[in-house]
Amino acid sequence: MLIDGRSGAGKTSLSAELEQRHPLARVLHLEEVYPGWDGLDAASETLVRSVLLPLRAGRPGRYRRWDWAADRPGPLATVPPSPLLIVEGVGALSRASRRLADLAIWVELDDETRMTRAMARDGAAYAPHWERWARQERRFIGRERPRLLADRIVRGGVYPQPSSCSCSSSMP
Length: 172
What we know:
By secondary structure, the chain is α/β, with parallel strands linked by helices. The chain has one domain (2-155): Rossmann fold (3-Layer(aba) Sandwich). The protein contains six helices and seven strands. The protein has helices at residues 11-21, 40-56, 95-98, 111-126, 130-144, 146-149, and strands at 2-5, 25-29, 61-67, 72-79, 84-88, 104-108, 152-155. The longest helix has 17 residues, at 40-56.
């Protein structure tokens, strides 16, 4: 399952909700994969090449974690095959990744609320990079059109309840 949307839209909250509902689910946060503040495209490509393709072949996926505090590559991480892998982050849903996923979700939220949420979450660490990151988001969205690739579009913070969701038998 791929969950994409702009920064602060609610992707992490949705993935946490789904992980809580599905005890066998594993979540991969793309923030672990981005190689720094200019790494949106690189992480999206790494997701496909090094995680999703190997998993589809029944092998573990691997990626190099990013050490944000040291601003350099960190340790190698392994993603073992699991019944439900949830990948969340800007760049999760591309034309290449969509072909390798069973379900794709776009999380949408207005710009003002997104920025307020992102700053409340990450504060001073994110503030100087907001526009730099937003430019990458706009380029990625313009090129890949993730919203159009999504099976479901949800508003950030407003997620279907288990009894009312009819999006997939594998999703509540």
